[in-house]
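Section 3.1: Structural characterization of target chains.
Under the original work plan, the team committed to producing a structural model for every single-chain target entering the pipeline before any wet-lab resources were allocated. The record below documents one such target. The sequence was received from the expression subgroup and is listed exactly as submitted; it comprises 378 residues.
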Amino acid sequence: MPVGELEITIIGAGHGGKTMAADLAARGYAVRLYNRTYEHVAAIALRGGVEITLEDGEQVFGAIKLVTSDIERALDGVPLIMVIVPASGHRDIARAAAPYLQDGQIVVLNPGRTGGALEFYHTLRQEGCTADVIVAETETFLFASRSTGPAQAHLFRRKNTVPLAALPATSTQAVLDLLQEVYPQFIAAPNVLYTSLNNMGAVFHPALTLLNAGWIEATGGDFEFYVDGVTPSTAHMLERLDRERVTIAAALGVRAQTAIDWLARAYSAQGDNLYDAMHDNPGYKGIRAPQTLRHRYIFEDVPFSLVPMAELGKRFGVEVWGIEAMIQLACVLHGTDYRHRGRTLERMGLVGYSLPEITRLVETGCAEPMPLEANDKP
């Protein structure tokens, strides 16, 4: 489909959504930008688009076709819907979109964090959506980016490759066929277990925020998050979390990448250990720490990345004390029960599922119970 003929809806106008909307629009695509609160996008509507600073420092303007808080208008007739909101909003977006989705549409969660596509699809069905849509998720967000003003964004770096999987996996190629000309960096992952369990935000974001809490509060985040915030000790904790994530994946039949391997693939960063590899990553240079501890690196990544990993780990007999320590620390820090509020097995529609049943669900979309003798223990 030639540039200009493909219309794309971006759901969410935060750091990532604003950047992707501007990038696509500047490249000639017809873009609709939806945000639940219109006041947050009023400046974009007034200017008619977003000014974006690209990797080489060039500033370009992306003219947005439609800026709206009306989700029906945002979705109507659009073949590709890119959802770029914190994972805490995935269920709300699914509920809001359910009455208006149409046959043949593709919804991509950028990213799904852990279990995003499972929760989104399960919510659509709970809301009575019968449209034949494909729900997919990416392993991570394509850009390192920041919003720099009401109608401005900065794209620091594009990742070399980003795995993507649809639910079910038999639909992945259809998604990639549509996305190929838009973002050829997207590549096929075997299924959504791979994208969910190769979720590097779960490893990097909560631990670096929680372990640098004093520095964040004292400076308002005035330091380079992935450089100054990564010391030998914090990197050692990241390595522990990474080992637990890889072990959970193995229990589910997934061969997950280590964080070091991921940094090499996504950013061409090299190192003998995680400390060295993160400091070798030019894509992390210049990214400041969160200004406050009330940040999505805790309220998104703990309940929607770490909690579902812990749930899956405990379901299949994996020791997750490092992940549990981060969850507990976040609960205490915010006075919030993130285990209860998070993406549980119930919210993913996986309660009581055996490993073969989960595998069949993500591969073929079949959610019918298997014969009892075919089930594993868990």
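The chain has 17 helices and twelve strands.
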